[in-house]
Amino acid sequence: MARPDARPDARHAAESRLAAAPAGGGAWLRAAREAARERLLAMGLPGRRDEYWRYTDPADLTSAEAPAAAPPRAADGAEPFAAAEPLRLVFVDGLFDPAASDPPELAGVQIERLAEAAPRDLHWARDLFGAIEARGQTPVPRPLAALNTALAADGLLLRVSGRAERPVALVRRQAAEGSDVMLHHCIRIEPGAELTLLESGPGGARTTDVLEVDVGDGGRFHHVRLQGRDHGGRVAAHLFARVGAAAQLRAFTLTADGPLTRNEAYVELAGAGGLAHLAGAALGDGAFHHDDTVVLRHIAPGCESRQVFKKVLKNGAAGVFQGKIHVLAQAQKTDGYQIAQALLLDEASQFLAKPELEIYADDVKCSHGSTVGAIDPVALYYLRSRGVPRARAEALLVQAFLAEAVDEIADPTLAEDIRARLEAWVARHSG
Amino acid sequence: MLEIRNLHVELEDGGTPILKGVNLAVKGGEVHAIMGPNGSGKSTLSYVLSGRDGYVVTQGSATLDGADLLAMAPEERAAAGLFLAFQYPVEIPGVGNMTFLRTALNAQRKARGEAEVSAADFLKLVRAKAKALAIDAEMLRRPVNVGFSGGEKKRNEILQMAVLEPKLCILDETDSGLDVDAMKLVADGVNALRDAGRGFVVITHYQRLLDHIRPDIVHIMADGRIVRTGGPELALEVESNGYAGILAEVA
Question: Which of A170, A347, B99, B223 is most enclosed, with most CB atoms within 10 A?
Answer without folding.
Answer: A170
